[in-house]
Automatic annotation (TrEMBL):
This is Pre-B-cell leukemia transcription factor 1. CDD domains: homeodomain. Residues 231-293 bind DNA. The gene is pbx4. Residues 229-292 form the Homeobox domain.
Length: 338
DNA sequence: TACAATGATTGCAA
DNA sequence: TTGCAATCATTGTA
């Protein structure tokens, strides 16, 4: 006898139940003795399905009646037997998922940006770096810094509230499914392992939704960062003194306007800018000078004169320092050097 | 407001 | 990696 036939045989005893008769073995016996044709499994299933269309009280009553039915243990044991055979085929399906590298990357990024985890200066550091790279004044950078932080805080807040919603929905849904399964376990065999597996499936589904949230949050942070890190958007001209220092070096090394790394560092220090800004400046200057030497000739002459005067001053200072007969030499030369 | 000046970025070559 | 050349985006000025 195959499983289905056995089940059908077991279930035939439940056939022909009327709503009022359910739970009343006498009425079943009466119906059987009256020679009513055996009804097929469809009837009983229909009755079970009909429970959902009934009011809560009616459904409860019918459920109770089905649970108390004398054939219920037979049905349950048949289901157990079938289960035992089928569970072997699904056993292999259950395996532990390795941590998703994509989720790990997103988590790391959100953590580094200060969106997830404890609120700290992750994003602030990025904003400060952005301001420094742009060469903005301390006041400007602090304004942008707070602006960046405010926007990041906004993203953080949205992220956390959405995450909370997802987690709440997940736990509600999990509870709901677990209650359903527990309830169903009265009529069909459901092991705790199966409930666990179902919970894991639900969590996987919700975690894929979470991944989408994390992904869009990361995108928002990247857009915010790129907006703040794009130095072109908040370019500031170097101050006059810095430009003079750079021009002086450029025109005094016109035959080879390529400062060494040490010279770049020195110039950067003098001008209050970064080494890469010095490199940019020399790159731009060389190309623009080469393109239009005529235009820069006047400027070149000006700095040549300035350099000559400075050199003369230095040598005068040196010669005066070597002559002890000259009084107040320091005060007279300082008016040229300044 | 148009335009020149200027600092930064990008793509390519050496 | 560095420098060049082209280009972008912003600032400063007439």
């Amino acid at each position: 006898m195959d499983d289905q036939t056995r089940m059908m045989t077991g279930l035939t005893g439940l056939g022909g139940l009327q709503q009022a008769d359910v739970g009343d073995p006498d009425s079943v016996r009466k119906q059987q003795s009256l020679g009513q044709p055996q009804q097929d499994i469809g009837d009983i299933l229909q009755q079970i399905m009909a429970i959902t269309d009934e009011s809560l009280d009616e459904a409860q009553a019918r459920k109770h009646a089905l649970n108390c039915h004398r054939m219920k243990p037979a049905l349950f044991s048949v289901l157990c037997e079938i289960k035992e055979k089928t569970v072997l085929s699904i056993r292999g399906v259950q395996e532990e998922d390795p941590p998703d590298p994509q989720i790990m990357r997103l988590d790391n990024m959100l953590l580094a940006e200060g969106v997830s985890g404890p609120e700290k200066g992750g994003g602030s550091a990025a904003a400060a770096a952005a301001a420094a790279a742009a060469g903005g004044s301390p006041t400007d950078s602090s304004i942008e810094h707070s602006d960046y932080r405010a926007k990041l805080a906004q993203i953080r807040q949205i992220y956390h509230s959405e995450l909370e919603k997802y987690e709440q929905a997940c736990s509600e849904f999990t509870n709901h499914v677990m209650n359903l399964l527990r309830e169903q376990s009265r009529t069909r065999p459901i092991s705790p392992k199966e409930i666990e597996r179902m919970v894991a499936i639900i969590h996987r589904k919700f975690s894929s939704i979470q991944m989408q949230l994390k992904q869009s949050t990361c995108e928002a942070v990247m857009i915010l960062r790129s907006r703040f890190l794009d130095a072109r958007r908040k370019r500031r001209n170097f101050n006059k003194q810095a430009t003079e220092v750079l021009n002086e070096y450029f025109y005094s090394h016109l035959s080879n306007p390529y400062p060494s790394e040490e010279a770049k560092e020195e110039l950067a220090k003098k001008c209050g800018i970064t080494v890469s800004q010095v490199s940019n400046w020399f790159g731009n200057k060389r190309i623009r000078y080469k393109k239009n030497i005529g235009k820069f000739q006047e400027e070149a002459n000006l700095y040549a004169v300035k350099t000559a005067v400075d050199a003369a001053n230095v040598s005068a200072q040196a010669s005066q320092a070597n002559s002890p007969a000259t009084p107040n030499s320091g005060t007279s030369s300082s008016c040229y050097t300044d």
